[in-house]
Specification:
Blueprint (H helix, E strand, L loop, with lengths): L1 H4 L9 H15 L2 H9 L6 H23 L5 E3 L3 H10 L6 H20 L3 H7 L2 H23 L2 E4 L3 E4 L5 H18 L5 H15 L32 H29 L11 H18 L4 E3 L3 H6 L5 H14 L3 H5 L3 H15 L11 H17 L2 H18 L8 H21 L1
Antiparallel strand pairs: 1-4, 2-3
Helix pairs in contact: 2-14, 3-4, 4-12, 4-14, 5-6, 6-11, 6-12, 8-16, 8-17, 8-18, 9-10, 9-16, 10-16, 11-12, 17-18, 18-19
C-alpha cells in the first residue's frame, strides 16, 4: 500500500530508505521543539503549551506535505518568522501576542488564496533579486544576534548600546561549549548535529548548576495547549500596521518556502531540464494550510525546513519520508519534560549555526552595481541593527525604488513594486505624524 500510494518504485526507493531519511531529517530539525517555545515564550506565552503547539503544528504541516505533495519535506515554525513575531510585532511595535497570532492566521488565509489563484508567481517576479537574496542574510545575522544575546555573550551597554558579556558566566560557557561541539559534529557530518549540540550544552548546564532534572521523570503527557489555543485578537486588524505585518510574514514565508522547496527538489532530482518543479503549487498550499492551522493552535508561521535536504541525502524521495518525520515528532510529544528543561543558553548555538547557514545567500548579490548592492546592504544591516525584519525589508525596498528611479533605471522596477513601495512610504509618513 505504501509503495503504491507514495509511488516508491517510480522514485526508485524503498520503505526502509524512506524511513531512514525521515529519521535523519527529524534529528537535524528537532531542535525546533526547544528553540521555538523559548523564543515565543519571551512574549509571556505559556512554554508548555507552546511545546505542544510546536509539535502538533509540525506533525500536521509535515503530513500535509506528505499527502498533498508527496515530497520528503518537513514543515515546522520557521526561524526568523518566530523572531519577527516576538521581537518586531510584540516587543518593538507593542502589540499583544494574541494580535500577532491573528496576523499569522490572516497571513495563512492570504497565502491559501494566493496559491489557489496562482498569484504567487506575480509576487515572486515583482520583488528584485537583490532584495530576495539579502533577506535571508539579514535574518541570519538577526538570529545570530539573538543567540549571542540569549547566551549572555552580547549584553546591553549604556556607552556603546551593546558590548561583550561576562565571560565568567556559566551561561556563556554552556553556549560556547555547545557551539564548538555542534561545529565539530557538522565537520564530521554527524546526523542530528544541532540537537546533539543542544543536549551536550544541557548536560554542561547540569554540571554548572544551571539545569535541574524534572522531578516527575522525563516522560509525561503533553502539556495543556489551551493557554494558546484559538487566542485571537480581532481589534485593530483593519490598520496599516496589520497590513505591513501580514505582508512581511507573507513575503518572508513565501520566499523562504520557495527557496527551500527548490533546493530540496534539486537535491532529490525533481526539477526537470527546463527548471520546472510540478509539485510546487501543492507544496505551497501545504505550507499555507499548515501556517493557518499553526495560528489556530498557538504558534508562529510554519515553513518548509531546509534540514529536509539531509533526509534526501540519506535516501528520502517521497512523502513517506515526511510521514516518518511526523511520527517521530508525535513520539516527542510525550517527552515534554526533557525538552522544556533545556535552558535558553543551550539553544543559543542552534540560533548561531542557523544564522551561519542563512548568510550564504550573500554570494548571490551583485555588488558591482550600487543600485543593487546598497538596497541589499540596507536590507541586511537594518534587520539586526533595528531588531526588526520588517524594517530591513522596508529600507531595502524603498532604497531600491529610489536608486533605480533617480539613476535612470526605472524600467527595472515592476509595477507591483511601485505599489508596495508606496504602501511602505505611507506607513513611514503615518509613523512620523504619530510621533510628531
Amino acid at each position: 500500500m505504501l509503495t503504491k500510494f507514495f509511488k516508491l518504485r517510480e522514485h526508485q526507493t524503498t520503505v526502509r530508505r524512506e524511513f531512514t531519511g525521515g529519521v535523519v531529517t527529524f534529528l537535524t530539525m528537532s531542535y525546533i521543539l526547544v528553540v521555538n517555545p523559548n523564543i515565543l515564550g519571551e512574549t509571556g506565552m505559556d512554554k508548555g503549551a507552546l511545546f505542544t503547539a510546536t509539535a502538533l503544528a509540525t506533525i500536521v504541516g509535515t503530513l500535509l506535505m506528505a499527502f498533498l505533495a508527496n515530497l520528503p519535506v518537513a514543515q515546522a515554525p520557521g526561524m526568523g518568522l518566530n523572531a519577527f513575531f516576538v521581537y518586531t510585532v510584540v516587543l518593538a511595535m507593542g502589540y499583544s501576542w494574541q494580535f500577532a497570532l491573528t496576523a499569522v492566521f490572516i497571513e495563512g488565509l492570504a497565502f491559501i488564496l494566493l496559491t489557489v489563484f496562482n498569484v504567487r508567481e506575480l509576487i515572486v517576479r515583482s520583488i528584485p533579486p537583490a532584495i530576495k537574496h539579502a533577506i535571508p542574510v539579514g535574518i541570519g545575522l538577526f538570529i545570530t544576534f539573538l543567540g549571542l544575546r540569549q547566551a549572555g555573550v552580547v549584553v546591553r551597554s549604556e556607552a556603546t548600546l551593546v558590548g561583550l558579556g561576562d565571560l565568567s558566566s556559566a551561561n556563556v560557557w554552556i553556549a560556547v561549549i555547545g557551539l564548538v561541539l555542534t561545529g565539530v559534529l557538522f565537520a564530521r557530518k554527524a546526523p542530528g548535529a544541532i540537537l546533539i549540540g543542544i543536549l551536550g550544552s544541557t548536560v554542561c548546564g547540569i554540571f554548572f548548576g544551571q539545569v535541574h532534572l524534572p522531578g516527575g521523570g522525563l516522560v509525561a503527557l503533553p502539556p495543556d495547549i489551551r493557554p494558546v489555543f484559538l487566542q485571537f485578537e480581532w481589534g485593530n486588524i483593519f490598520t496599516l500596521d496589520m497590513l505591513i505585518i501580514v505582508f512581511t510574514l507573507l513575503f518572508v514565508n513565501l520566499f523562504d518556502t520557495i527557496g527551500t522547496l527548490i533546493g530540496v527538489a534539486l537535491k532529490a532530482g525533481f526539477v526537470d531540464k527546463d527548471g520546472n518543479f510540478p509539485q510546487i503549487r501543492r507544496a505551497l498550499l501545504s505550507d499555507a494550510l499548515a501556517t493557518t492551522f499553526g495560528a489556530v493552535i498557538g504558534t508562529s508561521a510554519l515553513t518548509s525546513y531546509i534540514e529536509s535536504a539531509s533526509g534526501v541525502a540519506s535516501g528520502g524521495r517521497t512523502g513517506l519520508t515526511a510521514v516518518s518525520v511526523a511520527l517521530l515528532f508525535a513520539v516527542s510529544l510525550f517527552f515534554a519534560p526533557l525538552f522544556l528543561m533545556i535552558p535558553a543558553a543551550a539553544t543559543a548555538p542552534a540560533l548561531i549555526i542557523v544564522g551561519l547557514f542563512m548568510i550564504a545567500a550573500v554570494a548571490q548579490v551583485n555588488f558591482d552595481d550600487i543600485t543593487e548592492a546598497l538596497p541589499a546592504f540596507l536590507t541586511i544591516v537594518m534587520m539586526p541593527f533595528t531588531s526588526s525584519i520588517a524594517q530591513g525589508i522596508i529600507f531595502g525596498m524603498l532604497s531600491f525604488v529610489a536608486l533605480k528611479t533617480l539613476s535612470g533605471k526605472h524600467r527595472q522596477i515592476s509595477a507591483p513594486m511601485y505599489v508596495i513601495a508606496g504602501l511602505l512610504l505611507l506607513k513611514i509618513i503615518l509613523d512620523c505624524l504619530a510621533y510628531g
